[in-house]
Amino acid sequence: SICGKKLACGNHYCDDICHSGSCKPCVLTPERVVNCPCGRNSLAALGALPRKSCLDPIQICYTPCGKTLPCGHKCEKTCHMDECQVCERIATQYCRCMKENRRVECFKTSLEMFIAYKHRGTTFTEEERPAFLEACKKEYEETCVFSCQRKCNAKKSCKKHKCTNVCCEVAKDGNDPEGHHLCLKVCSRQLNCRQHNCELFCHQGPCKPCPLVSNEPLYCSCGTINIRPPIYCGTAAPCCDNPCPKVLECGHRCIGSCHTGDCSACPLLVEKTCDCGKQVKSKVPCHMKNVSCGRHCAKPLPCGHTCRRVCHPGDCFDAEAIKDGCGQICGKVRDLCGHTCQLKCHPHDDCQDTPCSAEISTQCSCGHRNGVVDCHMSNTTSTPMIQCDITCQKHARNLKLDFAFRNKHEEEAEDAWTEEYLEYARENFDKMKDLEQRLASLLASRDGMANLPAMKSEERILLQTLISKYYKLDVVAYGEGSKKKLMAYYKKGASVPTTLLSEEIEKERLVENPFLGKDFEAAIHFFDLTRMDNEQRLGGILSRLAGHYKVEWTDEGRCYANFYTLEDAEEAYQICINSPSNFSACKFIQLEVEQPKIVTSDIPEGSGSPRVADNENSTEAVSVTPTTEDSNEEEKSTGF
Fold first, then answer.
1. HSE-CB for 436 with a 13 A CA cutoff
2. CA-CA distance, 139 to 148, in Å (whole number)?
3. Distance (Å, rounded) from C-alpha 260 to C-alpha 629?
4. How many helices (H) and strands (E) are present in the chain, helices listed first?
5. Other Cβ atoms closer than 10 A to 239
6. pTM
7. Over the stretch 251-280, which tens digit does the pLDDT of each residue have?
8. How many angstroms separate the CA atoms of 559 and 622, rounded?
9. How far apart are CA 347 and CA 95, in angstroms?
């Protein structure tokens, strides 16, 4: 508290804090005051009357005070007796990190000047002073403290994490007395013992070794040998050469030697029943829990189907998930149309409630038009029919005219192959042969069905109409989109067409190539030729006989032109010997067919004679016997 004692002058009181001893003399006594309040001029120089008491006024000089204020500026007030006022000049204030600044009143740049500014003209008791100072400090922090919005982003002491403070004071000069950049996160990295984590604050460099130490000896698993203490945390237990005494879950003893940690899986080979229970597998490692035989599970499901999953453990389906079906194709025979239901398994619904999705072949009422439609048979719908059109009327009229003029070609006209089917067979001859064999087998058995592979929709519709029209079989398409498959069913009255489609194509090919299947009658042997472009040049010389011969090259580089007729060979020989090219060096050979063996040009490397193969239908080259007088010379030159 304030001392408050009356001073020696008898007029003023001591304003110092309570103290021992005598109080200081009054500062306003005439002896102590010799200058004006600002201190620039003496009272004598100003012509002031002599002061006799401390209560007498002090002469002022009426010049600027000029005293240095706490902020560093000079007091601009005229020489005065009271304390200098707070500086109100505009000054530059920097934020804590010194990256940004602003212009404000000078007294707002420090807390001391702000308190002095608030204190002027205000009186309060000593009890009120702490509350006044606290209110000033709070107001100063809210209104006068200036900080930017920049994040520090400088690395902390650990050099890993970054400071996220806004307008950080450390960025000003790098000093951090308050520890703003000290990383207070726990390191938590695994120590060298692999059992405990580092509990220090986040730091640079490697962690210190685990401080835990045991004073108990460390034994091996079977207890035979040990390591004497101290035992540092993380020290591996010793291992001896004795067998491991542990018994595994399966009941077998561990076959390894003494070791730490868990035992390895039991490798002994035993017999185990597969997951579906159909087969006992031998030589199965004992540790294997699930053994699959690779077959379909085939367990009956509540919906009536059998499980199609490969041998598996546990239930086939969750009881809740299978309530609405197992996801397989229903497969039941529909009562109304006789087709199999292609819907997904529906144990609670009748197949007849939804239209049948099978594609069937049908015809119009007169039997002239054939087509493919969806069955659509259900409890509420029926199969759509193909309607007769003007072509049916024309067909009926032509039949009447044929009958009137006694034309007996109705059956031939009915069985004639259209150009659409002929064109398909030309492009897919092998596929057509396979189809005819399948249908022939079905007709021979007079029962069952024939499965046809999935195909494009245009091809499927074409074959569906072909089988229905020419073979008189029932054809149904099952499936969805491009995965639809054809099923041909035998029915009474079905038969093989008079002429197969493949036979028609073979007739066309025979007309195009009259030498098909015919043996060679003569050959011309050309000497010293290479493959390069000689075959193309030979084709140019013998352009008139194109298709009447076939060129062969042996592995030894010999060239033979084999002709189907003797006349063509003689003509070609005359053309070659009279040409100015290297084809003039040739020899004519007349061939005679001895037996159904062929000589191919596939001569093994290092062999001096061609290989003989039994193939009656091959037309590559035929086994021949030269008929010229110099047979030995010809055999040497031709290689036969």
1. 17
2. 19
3. 95
4. 12, 19
5. 16
6. 0.39
7. 888 888 888 878 888 888 888 888 888 888
8. 15
9. 79
